[in-house]
Prior knowledge:
One of its GO terms (molecular function) is sequence-specific DNA binding. The protein is mainly alpha-helical. It has 14 helices and no strands.
Amino acid sequence: xxxxxxxxxxxxxxxxxxxxxxxxxxxxxxxxxxxxxxxxxxxxxxxxxxxxxxxxxxxxxxxxxxxxxxxxxxxxxxxxxxxxxxxxxxxxxxxxxxxxxxxxxxxxxxxxxxxxxxxxxxxxxxxxxxxxxxxxxxxxxxxxxxxxxxxxxxxxxxxxxxxxxxxxxxxxxxxxxxxxxxxxxxxxxxxxxxxxxxxxxxxxxxxxxxxxxxxxxxxxxxxxxxxxxxxxxxxxxxxxxxxxxxxxxxxxxxxxxxxxxxxxxxxxxxxxxxxxxxxxxxxxxxxxxxxxxxxxxxxxxxxxxx
Length: 306
């Protein structure tokens, strides 16, 4: 009876579910799959038959003949030409500046040679030689330096307003020149070489090609470095009055530098070294005085000045 019922009921269910009878009666029947029309949205199904909207029109292609003269391309061409023109001007300026520096350097090399000759002549003053004979050779180099500075002025006259642009090319040599002519001036007169006198000796003009103030002051600091050695050698040679003169000279110079508001730069460092030169001269003067080597009239003159 059960077999007959199974044989009549299961084929009817299988026909309704559109599946074949399952050979295993214990397994569950398969769920029928939906058709494609059931899974797709209704709007897509409806629009499949309708005509699709036309695509947006493409922009017209630019003509090759008109693209080069279009307003958008003109600024790019103009900017490229202006940049090229600018750097072309830079190239010419740099070439001109390099030529001027080469000419200045050739003059500075001759200046260095004159400074070495002048310095070697002044070093003989530390020996027991007559001062006029020693100063004759260094004095002759002042005329050479004057001519070299005239050549520098002629070069800078070709590029007015560019003095401090090329000033560093001869700055150290100028400081050495000032120190030498200041020391030479002291040996001749016993006084300080003024700024205007230094310009006159070198043939410089403050309006066109003058002597920089910092170079002048730095040269004076270099000159003070020679004073302690000069004092010691003069005392050794028997000139016991030299320490008093040099001490007064350096004391006045150091006091004059105190009036300046020097910042922490190269000039300030050189000025700080001047106090050590002054201290060494003071020690030599003290030794000479304590040993009674100074003349009595010299001591009285010093007390009167004090």
